[in-house]
Amino acid sequence: QVQLRESGGGSVQAGESLELSCGASGSISSMNIMGWYRQAPGKQRELVASITSGGIIGYADSVKGRFTISRDNAKNTVCLQMNSLKPEDTAVYYCNYRRLWPRSDYWGQGTQVTVSV
User: Fold this and answer.
1) Measured between alpha carbons, how far is residue 95 from residues 24, 75, 116 in Å?
2) Interatomic CA distance for residues 25 and 5, integer angstroms
3) How confident is the model at residue 29 (pLDDT cuts 50, 70, 90)?
4) pLDDT for res 8
5) Torsion sign (Cα): 4, 7, 8, 9
């Protein structure tokens, strides 16, 4: 089992910044992917950004150039720096830990990000 603890989030105005952090504990494997997903009301959960234990990064097109994901393998943490926030970024953001073998997913409890005009 892997436990995820998220921090950050909150309410900001458009154009401002927020940082989300997530720490993983428990049965951490050397090969994994950590990332952030979000779910807005009435919409499906979507991938925002991910980073492998080897440092390969991917972003959703909607956040490229505004969000930056990073991780500290020694501390098992992942951060998401969100700049130039837009109202459409409003959602509950979930930290995800994916063990590659055997394949399994773990989720944080979610943190609300609200961006007002």
Assistant:
1) 9, 15, 23
2) 8
3) confident
4) 95
5) positive
Q: If you write DSSP's letter for every residue of 43-89 in order, what string do you get? A: S--EEEEEEETT--EEE-GGGTTTEEEEEETTTTEEEEEE-S--GGG
On the 0-12 / 13-18 / 19+ scale of CB atoms within 10 A, 44 is exposed
Quote the CA–CA distance of 109 and 13 in Å, as a whole number: 24
pLDDT exceeds 90 at position 30: no
Task: Determine the length of the chain.
Answer: 117
How is residue 82 written in tokens? 């969100």
Q: Burial code of 97-111, b = ≥16 C-beta within 10 A, e = fewer? A: bbbeeeeeebebebb
Which residues lie closer than 8 Å to 74 by C-beta, 6 or more apart? none
State the Cα–Cα distance between residues 115 and 36, nearest whole angstrom. Answer: 17
**Nearest to 100, CA basis, from 23, 22, 26, 33:** 33
pLDDT at 28 over 90: no
